[in-house]
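Sample pair:
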Amino acid sequence: MTMTAAELALVDRWQRNFPLVPQPFAVIGEAAGLDEAATIAAFAHLRDKEVLSRIGAVVRPNTVGASTLAAICVPAASIDDVAAIVSAEPLVTHNYEREHAINLWFVVAGPDAASIAATLARIEQRTGLPIIRLPLVEAYYLDLGFALTRERKANRAGNRAGNRAVRHNPNRRDQRLLAAIEDGLPLVARPYQEVARKIDLSEEDVIDHLGGLLADGIVSRFGCVVRHRHLGYCANAMAVWDVPDNVVNVVARHCTSNPHVTLCYQRPRNLPDWPYNLFCMVHARTRPEALATIDDLNAIAQASHFEQAVLFSTRCFKQRGAVFSDRARGH
């Protein structure tokens, strides 16, 4: 999609630190030289063109609700049918075809572990295929923001989720608030007020509570969530290594220093099919750019001698935020 310079600047600047004030679009517009109505219209245009997925929270996994990465080895002739079954599940947030014998990869995220287990059981029953379950062991870096007008190098340490202690025990109110914004903030002059009406809180309560979730590390980022393929980031690579458990934290710390790594986490091996335990997501405009980043990771982390693989995604079947509402129950 062709974007104006003003639209590009808006979505780039506000991928994080979205204003927690009663009229956030007025604040954003003032900084950009736009009035409030024009600012809302610009974000609505980006949403309608599917560049902007939502303005909302990126929630640290398994703090409010539960989640897991999962994968299936699907016969090539059946990939579209199986992908459709997977995507139809409301708790599936991401669903990708990747270049590997294990070729369908998806994330299930929802209100509780029972809902996750039920979703995976239904997929296995409906597809007749076994699922490889890869729940999170350690999150080292969670961001998924993209540098659109400048290199994003600053403040990476502050986003290293694995190094931040969660100082908060999530409760039902957290889940209700996150459920109310799971599809994104409404694009109106006072979005927090509209959210507050849904869950019988005051506007001030919603703003304060979102700020608390950010401060406590439950929400790792609050702002624009973009669809990277619509912005030219078409080389989506999942790089994986089999790293000895006693050094995986050290290797991961080196990987997170690279500004082109958007996710870095440890997951369990699933032998004999899946021997890898360290995952890094790299989003680039071209395959050579992605492979160059992975070469850099091997060099800086001294990881080239570990067994490894690079899985490029070929198709995106589904991409959305986690579901915290009750709409998935009883599916």
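The CA atoms of residues 74 and 103 lie 6 Å apart.
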